Amino acid sequence: MTIMEGWEKEGRLAALEANVRYLLDIEEIRNIRRLYHTYVNERTPERIADLFTNDGEWDFGPVSRGSNVREYFTNLKDRSQFFQQFPHHHVVEVTGDLATGFCYQEAKAVINGIAYTVLGRYDDVYHRTPAGWRFRKMCFDPRVFAPSSDQSWADPAKRRVDPYANFMERDADGNLIIPKS
């Protein structure tokens, strides 16, 4: 459905309501995707299962697949010491109470002390439930899963750096001193 489809035949108000509903559905689905990555990045994976339908499934290709979403994601912290995902280009198509979507991802991970770069694509099926939109199926196609050429950030002490250190100074209290030009 396009935003202007049916504008003349259904009547202006009905078409407007349908188009607003369509756009709100897309934003709610994008929010589910955003929350998923937030929970992974903030290391609160036990909250991820609430984003899935009761019969929800995941398929991460050669990594894992299954339907016990709560168990899998709750144990996620035990499998990685660090994980930051950077999704982008989330495309959603809604048809009634079902929707599909995809997005690309770049991620940085530390697993068993080794830093990895991960690139891939998520393909999802969503279902509208009484509680709102939820993942029915989440598939990740890892296109690159390789040790990073820079292993320095595998050490937790080296992940926190001062981004201003190379071009600004700090006073005795740690406040940034803005250089005069």
From TrEMBL:
InterPro entries: NTF2-like_dom_sf, SnoaL-like. Pfam families: SnoaL_4. It comes from the Bacteria. Residues 22-138 form the SnoaL-like domain. This is SnoaL-like domain-containing protein. It comes from Novosphingobium malaysiense.
